């Protein structure tokens, strides 16, 4: 407790008491205790983060899964490590994480903190912490009412990065918006050398189609999804940076997992989809930069558990249910591509909310390629959420069979219909608050053992 002020002690104690109360009474609550601490001592994060080697994970899609992957790899390597595994990625939630792990009478040494950070909140964290590494996963249109277009998101992230010039940046090289940032930081890139398909023409609804320097349209040697890929500009010569860490071969893609060659290592990723290969590649790059052994990386990635609505698998009265968080066109299309890998029939639920954390503007669902589901063998189409009728209209226009629609506004009724499904394999695609609230319902019924 050397050199700690009375204000900091009171701040930490008040927050720890609040953490205890929220965990025992509310069965959750990861933001409010941090607000309590910050109300007493605005600089408390600087104190409680001392001694940690910090990795900050930000970007539009994949933050929670990538953070979990990095955390598990570092833990597998035998190191002391903490994380905000519930996805509480705003400033107060991150303060809560550090305070929850703070001990008054022991000094933190040789420990790591792998922290997910909301894009707009990065600047509040780097004001008090100098991270070892900051990674940016990607930049897609998301929560249009909050962020607007992708350049707004990029500028918010750069506000945070410019506060910490000694931090290494590990960036997605396939993301054109992250190239040539003109920053003094050491920067390394990861990306795909392997082709997912033969597409070289960017989709009309892709997010960053034009060169950020000369505004000419990008050309591609290959596209992974949306605007990510091996891009180059014929106008000014801007192109993808040299990759230090790369997926060099796709060995297997299935609805449940993927096997790829990253640099010279064969790695199985226990979660499916190209977007999860990106997450694993990012985790690989960061942990290699941290000096983690290859054996720890390989073992951890092949045993990575799905977390908190990110391809989380449940058993509901004998039905195999997988919850997939979807929050913007890019991520939704990747989830649909994963469904398309199924060779057998299945049922699917679509949950759409329009709360603040989802984005109050749901017009983005018209940029999702639901039409690719038209020829799949889907037995039942469950639809729920605050904007279930908007979703039903979108799916009807996409060509899904209306007689298969089962619309339920109440979770109790939705769960009953899922239990009665003619197919025991069911995917639930849900926006953020729909996922949170439905998990709470399932927790109350005993189908989920751990709420947070």
TrEMBL record:
The keyword Cell wall biogenesis/degradation appears for this protein: yes
Lipid II isoglutaminyl synthase (glutamine-hydrolyzing) subunit MurT C-terminal domain span: 325-435
Broad EC category: ligase
Function: The lipid II isoglutaminyl synthase complex catalyzes the formation of alpha-D-isoglutamine in the cell wall lipid II stem peptide. The MurT subunit catalyzes the ATP-dependent amidation of D-glutamate residue of lipid II, converting it to an isoglutamine residue.
Catalytic activity: beta-D-GlcNAc-(1->4)-Mur2Ac(oyl-L-Ala-gamma-D-Glu-L-Lys-D-Ala-D-Ala)-di-trans,octa-cis-undecaprenyl diphosphate + ATP = beta-D-GlcNAc-(1->4)-Mur2Ac(oyl-L-Ala-gamma-D-O-P-Glu-L-Lys-D-Ala-D-Ala)-di-trans,octa-cis-undecaprenyl diphosphate + ADP; beta-D-GlcNAc-(1->4)-Mur2Ac(oyl-L-Ala-gamma-D-Glu-L-Lys-D-Ala-D-Ala)-di-trans,octa-cis-undecaprenyl diphosphate + L-glutamine + ATP + H2O = beta-D-GlcNAc-(1->4)-Mur2Ac(oyl-L-Ala-D-isoglutaminyl-L-Lys-D-Ala-D-Ala)-di-trans,octa-cis-undecaprenyl diphosphate + L-glutamate + ADP + phosphate + H(+); beta-D-GlcNAc-(1->4)-Mur2Ac(oyl-L-Ala-gamma-D-O-P-Glu-L-Lys-D-Ala-D-Ala)-di-trans,octa-cis-undecaprenyl diphosphate + NH4(+) = beta-D-GlcNAc-(1->4)-Mur2Ac(oyl-L-Ala-D-isoglutaminyl-L-Lys-D-Ala-D-Ala)-di-trans,octa-cis-undecaprenyl diphosphate + phosphate + H(+)
Residues annotated as catalytic: 361
Protein name: Lipid II isoglutaminyl synthase (glutamine-hydrolyzing) subunit MurT
Residue intervals of the Mur ligase central domain: 57-231
Family the entry assigns: Belongs to the MurCDEF family. MurT subfamily.
Single Gene Ontology BP annotation: regulation of cell shape
Record note on quaternary structure: Forms a heterodimer with GatD.
InterPro entries: Folylpolyglutamate_synth_CS, Lipid_II_synth_MurT, Mur-like_cat_sf, Mur_ligase_cen, MurT_C
SUPFAM superfamilies found in the cross-reference section: MurD-like peptide ligases, catalytic domain
Binding-site positions, Zn(2+): 211, 214, 233, 236
A GO term, aspect molecular function: ATP binding
EC number: 6.3.5.13
Keywords from the UniProt entry: ATP-binding, Cell shape, Cell wall biogenesis/degradation, Ligase, Metal-binding, Nucleotide-binding, Peptidoglycan synthesis, Zinc
């Amino acid at each position: 407790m050397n050199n700690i002020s009375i204000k900091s002690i009171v701040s930490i104690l008040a927050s720890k008491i609040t953490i205890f109360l929220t965990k025992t009474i509310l069965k959750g609550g990861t933001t409010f205790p941090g607000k309590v601490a910050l109300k007493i001592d605005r600089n408390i994060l600087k104190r409680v983060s001392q001694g940690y080697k910090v990795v900050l994970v930000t970007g539009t899609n994949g933050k929670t899964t990538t953070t979990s992957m990095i955390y598990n790899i570092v833990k597998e390597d035998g190191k002391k490590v903490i994380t905000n595994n519930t996805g509480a990625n705003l400033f107060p939630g991150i303060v809560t994480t550090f305070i929850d792990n703070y001990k008054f009478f022991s000094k933190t040494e040789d420990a790591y903190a792998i922290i997910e950070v909301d894009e707009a909140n990065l600047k509040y964290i780097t004001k008090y912490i100098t991270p070892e590494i900051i990674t940016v996963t990607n930049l897609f249109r998301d929560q249009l009412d909050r962020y607007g277009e992708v350049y707004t998101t990029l500028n918010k992230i750069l506000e945070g990065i410019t506060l910490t010039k000694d931090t290494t940046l590990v960036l997605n090289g396939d993301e054109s918006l992250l190239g040539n940032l003109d920053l003094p930081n050491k920067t390394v890139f990861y990306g795909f050398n392997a082709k997912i398909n033969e597409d070289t023409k960017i989709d009309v609804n892709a997010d960053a189609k034009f060169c950020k320097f000369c505004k000419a349209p990008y050309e591609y040697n290959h596209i992974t999804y949306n605007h990510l890929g091996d891009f180059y500009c014929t106008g000014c010569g801007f192109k993808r940076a040299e990759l230090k860490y790369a997926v060099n071969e796709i060995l297997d893609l299935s609805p449940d997992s993927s096997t790829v060659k990253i640099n010279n290592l064969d790695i199985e990723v226990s979660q499916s989809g190209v977007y999860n290969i990106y997450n694993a590649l990012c985790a690989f790059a960061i942990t290699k930069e941290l000096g983690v052994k290859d054996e720890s990386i390989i073992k951890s990635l092949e045993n990575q558990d799905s977390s908190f609505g990110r391809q989380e698998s449940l058993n509901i009265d004998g039905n195999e249910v997988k919850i997939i968080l979807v929050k913007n066109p890019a991520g939704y299309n990747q989830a649909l591509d994963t469904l398309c890998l199924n060779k057998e029939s299945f049922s699917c639920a679509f949950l759409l909310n329009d709360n603040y954390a989802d984005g109050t503007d749901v017009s983005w669902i018209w940029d999702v390629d639901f039409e690719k589901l038209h020829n799949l063998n889907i037995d039942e189409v469950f639809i729920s959420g605050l904007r279930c009728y908007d979703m039903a209209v979108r799916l009807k226009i996409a060509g899904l069979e209306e007689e298969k629609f089962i619309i339920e506004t109440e979770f109790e009724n939705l769960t009953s219909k899922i239990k009665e499904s003619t197919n025991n394999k069911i995917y639930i695609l849900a926006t953020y608050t729909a996922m949170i609230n439905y998990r709470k319902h399932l927790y109350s019924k005993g189908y989920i053992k751990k709420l947070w």
